[in-house]
Amino acid sequence: GRQVGTLRDGLSERADQVRQTQTPHWSGPASIAAAAARAALVAPVHEFVATLDVVRRTLYAASSSVESLRRQIENLDHDAADHGFRVGPDGSVTDLRGQRTFDTQAEADAYTAQRTQLAHGFADRAGHLLELGAQIDQSLTSVAARFIPTDTPSSDLDTILHDYQVSDDTVVEWSPPWP
Question: Strand pairing partners for 166?
């Protein structure tokens, strides 16, 4: 989260520097085109900075949620172990105490009912924790999806570069639209 915040601050500062730069003391269509290109360069950066804010907030929230989830899993593991159970990573519950012998069928039934009730309780808690983990994962996945590139143009800059026939490093050809 902190690294994203640092990146966000740096990008925002650089975008503001570009936005605040003035064209030299010249005017006309070239000056207007330069101002438009500058604005087109800055706009996507500001959009990206806004996205980074969402990412930063989501990371901080997820970090807090993951820490809480970790503590709850540890508590569940300790509680289960105290009662002779083990909870698997998939939420399955295993009774570690094995077979017992009882003097009466009623004692055996009571013991079985108690163990079954405990196992179901641990399984319910594990299921709840798995759901929380899935929710945290979904929140992070939805934010990460914002960074998946698409084939569509991302800004007006592509249009400006195309209109003025600008390649990656040179102006290929340009005919002014005025006489």
Answer: 171
